[in-house]
């Protein structure tokens, strides 16, 4: 009689870089399917909180430099990496690609829909957007988060009078605005998504004349902001995406993960 030996093959694992709606979508989809273990890396605790209760999902929070990414990939032996970071996080995407290449791990890049064209002022970067609003008149509503606040404060001599900022209701974002001298009554700490009606209400409440946004697509509430601004008859400044990328939309990415990686 021979002994029966069973080989137990560990489930594959996938590393998802996100903190975005796309990252949450992919993590939830993979987690519910139960075909793999999912590790989600998010920059902020808020991003991590979006996935911490999902099945088969482990949440890591905090900034990762390229060496951190490479060490994690080597240690965990991921079947693939999903880059679902924000379309404006070009440096992070480059770091992910470099670390994955060093570890010989394939990357699936998830893209939002292409940047639209429209009747608004375009800016190639944050600095140009800050210059445009500094040259404008009336109150400005900044809807691009707390990271780029220093550029606007530096460009606008009268920022304390004219600049209103909509940021996440988390301590780090509120502290950043406070340290720059933005008056508390000019800080709108709210978590989206925001409807067109809510955007209109804020525009009217604070007598906004210029709204600043990024071309972040439907997932970033772009059209609700633009339509609200148009109906209120105010100017819009749109910061262009930094690069044209190759990748997949959310549905294509899921198909690739299922058919090419068996997840």
Identify the notable features of this structure and list them briefly.
single chain, 263 residues, Rossmann fold, 6-stranded parallel beta sheet, 5-stranded parallel beta sheet, 11 helices
Overview of this protein structure:
By secondary structure, the protein is an alpha/beta fold. The protein has two domains: 116 residues, Rossmann fold, CATH 3.40.50.720; 119 residues, Rossmann fold (3-Layer(aba) Sandwich). The protein has eleven helices and eleven strands. Helix 3 runs parallel beside helix 4 and helix 9 packs across helix 10. The longest helix has 14 residues. It is elongated. The chain starts with 12 loop residues before the first strand and ends with a helix. The N terminus is likely disordered.
What is this entry, summarized?
The protein has helices at 21-33, 45-49, 66-76, 90-103, 126-134, 149-155, 159-162, 171-179, 196-205, 222-232, 250-259; strands at 13-18, 37-42, 57-61, 80-83, 107-109, 121-123, 139-142, 163-167, 187-189, 208-214, 235-239. The protein is α/β, with parallel strands linked by helices and 263 residues long.
